[in-house]
Specification:
Helix 1 runs antiparallel to helix 3, helix 1 crosses helix 6 and helix 4 runs antiparallel to helix 6. The chain starts with a helix and ends in a 13-residue tail after the last helix. It has six helices and no strands. It is mainly alpha-helical.
Length: 129
Amino acid sequence: MNQQQKTAEWILRIGIFGSFLGHGIFALGIKQGWIPLITAFGFSEPTAITMLPIIGMVDIAVAILALIWPIRIVLIYATLWAFATALARPIAGDPIWDFVERAANWAAPLALLILQGVPKKFKDIFTVR
C-alpha cells in the first residue's frame, strides 16, 4: 500500500469514527428526534427509548474499532447500519433528501472496506487486510 492509500484509509477511519461516535453519544442521550425513526418500524415508544442507549453503545464501539482496528465485519456492519438508518428517514416520513444527505455515513465504511478488499471467504470478515 502506498502512502496516498494509507492517508486515504486514515481519513476514512477518522470520518467513520466521528460519524459513529457522534451518533452514539446522541443515542446514549436518547435523542428525542430519533424515537419516531424507531417507532416507524412498529416498535413502541418505551421500546425505542430502551433501544437507543444500546444502539449508542454499539455505535461507540464501532467508532473505536473503525479507528484502531477496522476489521471487515465492523466495516460491513457500519455500512449496512448507516444505510438502514439513513433509509429510515424517508420511511418515517422525512423527505428523501434526508437519506441523500446521509450518504457519506454509509459510503465511508464501504470505501474503507473496498480499500481493504471485500472478503471472499467467511473467515476474511474477521481480518483487517
